[in-house]
Amino acid sequence: MTHDVTLKKLNDRFGAGSFETSQFRDNFRLACPRERIAALLKFLKDDCGFDLLVDVTAVDYSNYPDARDRFGVIYALLSTETGERLFVKVFVNDPDLTLPSVVPLWQGANWLEREVFDMFGIRFDGHPDLRRILLPDEFAAFPLRKDYPLRGRGERHNFPVLSRTES
Amino acid sequence: MPLQLAEPAAPPAESQEYIWTLNFGPQHPATHTTLRLILKLDGERVIDAIPDIGYLHSGFEKLGEHLDYNQYVTVTDRMNYISPLSNNIGWHHAVERLLGIDVPPRCKYIRTILAELARISDHLLCVGTAALDLGAFTAFLYAFNLRETLSDLFELLCGARFTTSYTRVGGLMYDVDQRFVERVRSFLAAFPPLHADISRLLDRNRIFVDRTKGVGVLSKEEAINWSCSGPVARASGVTCDLRKDEPYLAYADFDFKVCCATGGDVYNRYLVRMAELLESVKIVEQAIENLPAGPVNIDPAGRAMLPDKTKVYSTIEGLIQHFELVMWNRGFPSPTDECYAATEAPNGELGFYLVGDGSNVAYRARCRPPSFIHFSVFPKLIRGHTISDVVAVLGSLNIIAAELDR
Predict the structure, then answer these.
(1) Between A54, A76, A135, which is nearest B54 by CB?
(2) CB A54 to CB B5 under 8 A?
(3) Which of A85, B96, B166, B203 is the most exposed, having the fewest neighbouring CB atoms within 10 Å of its CB?
(4) If you measure CA to CA, which chain B residue comes closest to A136?
């Protein structure tokens, strides 16, 4: 799978060398500065044919060797026409953990972004319904961050128990 | 950061007092598993559905950061427990992509056979229970009878019927024997007539067709926009199948079709699954007759594959090798890089995004579960239909809550 056509389009639109590209195995990746992520994803969807958003996920790079940024958010894109895959990565750091939401572009991002918010506390501006999805609403921590212990902070033992009369 | 709660829905206006709310689940026989829906009803008509998920959340992704690449396979069994072998294969497919391991041909063929048998098992359950929810009890019994044969087969294969944990980094737990091959052959011979029975019971069944046709329609553009994959997308006319698009394992060697439909409703999803069953049988037939000889695991000298258990117990080299791999401060090295790899699981694209940090434990093990994504479409599909259609649409999406919540 070649990515020449996409790269050429990107270079024409954003200027050559605006994005750092890399390849590992068969994954072709694009690193994007945070300010340009909305424009880039919109361009990729509208003009490069990446019509399917496969996944949105995040990684907490706190303990990662040689990492400079705290969180990386990864958008996995697929073009259903050509079968081309592209991974766009954007870094966010404390204290401003926000990114523009891509729900207006891909409806499928709705729950994926909610899950990233639920697990990492990264907020998505413009998301129609940004609240916790897997964890209970009153949960206070973000468990997939590296500073959260595997066995939790006792939430499970302090969980409110309702009796039959209260429910 | 303070937790932001969503605004509660606007209080019903004076004129909307006839709308009432029904809680569906989390313990309800027709949800199959633990998921909850809050339905807003106008008489029988569903105005809105709000899914409330997370009842089965068990932190699988967090566990993935603490269990090594071989140990985590036991957790993948519990994701989509209808077809655990598919998850085992999907997980180790991604791990081997990250580590750059190419498994031997025999292993590829066996994994292909098992992935397809798992698909048959999954589709049978989906078709059977979807029919059961709509009142067709006989089709359900036929389907579960067939699944029983498959569970026996898996038991012969690895000693467990559901929690198979059959794959390892660079190979399999055991090689298959001739008995297994014979049993697969007899299953394949018995399958088409029983498939035809189910088909005859449902395809033109007046009640089944009336309750499924035109219900929960998803157009092609919507299916793509909502990130759907697998049978749900193919029933809407999206011609995507990872087995054809990015042939992994041994799929490039076999002759099979990608089954699609254009209706995008519950009935078409049923038809696609039924057609895929026969294609899977075709793949298994070709694979079992051309099963290559040779080793099933990569060479243990490559320091990624666990050595044979008899070697561990009887030779010092084997024992050392075993400890080198399983001790927490040893183990095989992984690249300090990240990689996504996906397989076509019965429900759709099952992908794993792995971040390696040089150790034998993933730094991050993201799972892209198809059920999670398909369930987010559910409110859109059910709006405007009657409450009795809820079970029809739920059944056609084949939501498995353990995979939904992980």
Answers:
(1) A135
(2) no
(3) B203
(4) B54
Backbone angles phi, psi at B166, to 5 degrees: -85, -25
Chain A residues whose beta carbon lies within 8 Å of the beta carbon of residue B341: 25
Model ipTM value: 0.90
CB of B139 closer than 8 Å to CB of B127 = yes
Contact present, A117 and A132 (Cβ < 8 Å): yes
| Inter-chain CB proximity B238 and A80 less than 8 Å | yes
Give the chain B residue whose CA is nearest to the CA of A128: B6
State the pTM of this model.
0.89
Domains parsed from chain A with CATH numbers: 4-125 (3.30.460.80)
Q: How far apart are CA B91 and CA B191, in angstroms?
A: 28
Superfamily of domain B60-100+103-297+335-405: Cytochrome-c3 Hydrogenase, chain B (1.10.645.10)
A52 vs chain B: nearest CA distance in angstroms?
6
Backbone angles phi, psi at B74, to 5 degrees: -65, -30
The per-residue pLDDT for range B364-400, each reduced to its tens digit, is 999 999 989 999 999 988 888 888 888 888 888 888 8
pLDDT per position in chain A (167 positions), as tens? 578 888 888 888 887 777 888 888 888 898 888 888 888 899 888 888 888 999 999 999 988 888 888 899 999 999 988 888 999 999 998 888 899 999 988 988 999 999 999 999 899 998 888 888 888 888 888 999 999 988 888 877 777 788 888 76
Q: Which of A87, A131, A134 sits opposite B405 (nearest CB)?
A: A134
- In angstroms, how far is CA B280 from the centroid of its own chain? 14
3-state secondary structure of A163: coil
Q: In whole angstroms, how far apart are CA A6 and each of A39, A41, A46, B17, B77?
A: 15, 12, 12, 54, 38
Per-residue pLDDT reduced to its tens digit, B136-173: 888 889 999 889 999 999 999 888 888 888 898 888 88
Helices in B134-216 by DSSP H: which ranges? 137-158, 178-202, 206-212
